[in-house]
Amino acid sequence: MYELLLFLHILMAITWVGGALATQFFALRLVGDSPPETQANFAKSSEWVGKRIFMPASLVLLLSGIGLTIEGDWGFGSAWILIGLGAYLFSFVSGAFFLGPETGRLGKAMDEKDVADPEVQERIKRLFTFSRIELGVLILIVLDMAVKPGA
Question: CA-CA distance, 126 to 119, in Å (whole number)?
Fold first, then answer.
């Protein structure tokens, strides 16, 4: 069971963190050189991937991590597990209370205004900037899981 949980945990981390990293590379390329319509379409596609790929992957990652902690007798008081859970909580809260709602506001703004409108462009940039911060947190979680401080 432990090996199965570990496989799922690693696969979901690859999906979530690797996907977020790839998304940021595409965003960096598109934001500077692409017309506003391309940027808006990319933002919509990123929302789709976030809801249908990243969110489920992050939930399976959390559940498999909890299973690993129980199955591997790690203990929830270990510093590296608490750091990982805290960073996961940051990502969850930021997604639920900023990224998700802001994406909805962006979609509404794109329906009401031209994608070249300064408000729409500012919302796109804000989403991509915050997504980079969240990616940094995800990378720190991977570092935390690899180094296991306090273990």
Answer: 10
